[in-house]
Amino acid sequence: MNRFPVASLSLLVLLLAPLFVSPVLAQRRFQEFPRFPLFVAKYGQLSLGSGDFDGDGDQDIVLGRIGVLQSHQLLFNDGFGKFTNVTKTHFPGDKDVTGFAVLVDDFDQDGDLDIIFGTSFWSTNKRYQFLFYINDGKGHFKNEGNFRFPLDPICPDTRSMAKGDFDGDGDVDFVVGNFRFFKNGLLFYENITKGFFLDTTVRKKRIPRTRSEIMDIVPSDLDRDGDLDLVV
After folding, report:
1. Helix (H, G, I), strand (E, B) or coil at 146
2. What pLDDT does 109 receive?
3. Which DSSP symbol is given to 17?
4. CA 76 to the chain's CA centroid
5. What residue ranges define each of the domains in the chain, with the CATH number in brackets?
6. pLDDT of residue 42
7. List of residues 6+ apart from 138 with CB closer than 8 A
8. Which residue has the higher pLDDT, 88 or 157?
């Protein structure tokens, strides 16, 4: 009796498999724009964050933008993947922004999600604080960066950010990667209490000095010793 070799039979099964794929799966396609409002901007978007900002159980979106007279954008999800721009009613109208990086977390530990954007010397934000949008619990935000961050006389030109409980005290800290001409390529911002931050990079010798331009940061417990390490 003739038999198919095992290898030939396996190949035959693989070739026939697409014929039996569910029609629903076979028809799935990605589409562009139909569920999002179309933005017209001189430059465009630099970063994106997501979270349940209004507490209704679905994922909303925040966009970091760049450009003259541009502001960061907040989009609410209706629960079915259709998004509405609620920036004018729920988000501060900070202009001339440069949002290379964004973080989303409950930084002030009040049970809702807040937003932090990096800053840049391209921006007209000449006080050089990060933009720190505090959530009121219903998705309305207020920028409290002017008094939750220390004034830095040299603008941190943010390229990347990463968050985590790096000092093991139970709250969320973050690290910042900067443009190569800044005084230090990496900065450590310690959450002192409920969303008030201090740059303790030098004071507590948190991170070795570097002049590199840091475009991405990944926190992970690489050596499995129970704390977060950094790959930059």
Report:
1. helix
2. 97
3. G
4. 16
5. 39-231 (2.130.10.130)
6. 54
7. 54, 55
8. 88
Is residue 114 within 8 Å of residue 108, measured between CB atoms?
Answer: yes
pLDDT in tens, 17-61: 555 555 555 567 766 666 666 555 555 778 999 999 999 999 999
* 8 A C-beta contact, residue 103 and residue 161: yes
Question: Tokens at residue 180, please?
Answer: 């190569």
Q: Which two tokens stand for residue 152?
A: 């830095």
Q: Which of 145, 69, 62, 155 is nearest to 104 (CA)?
A: 62
Model pTM?
A: 0.81
What gap in Å lies between CA 46 and CA 15, rounded to an integer? Answer: 42
Tokens of 197: 């931050």
> Cα–chain-centroid distance for residue 92?
18
26-31's contacts with Cβ under 8 Å and 24+ in sequence apart are none
**pLDDT surpasses 80 at 85:** yes
Strands (E), the chain: 44-51, 60-66, 73-77, 83-85, 102-105, 114-117, 131-135, 141-143, 158-164, 173-178, 186-193, 196-199, 218-220, 229-231
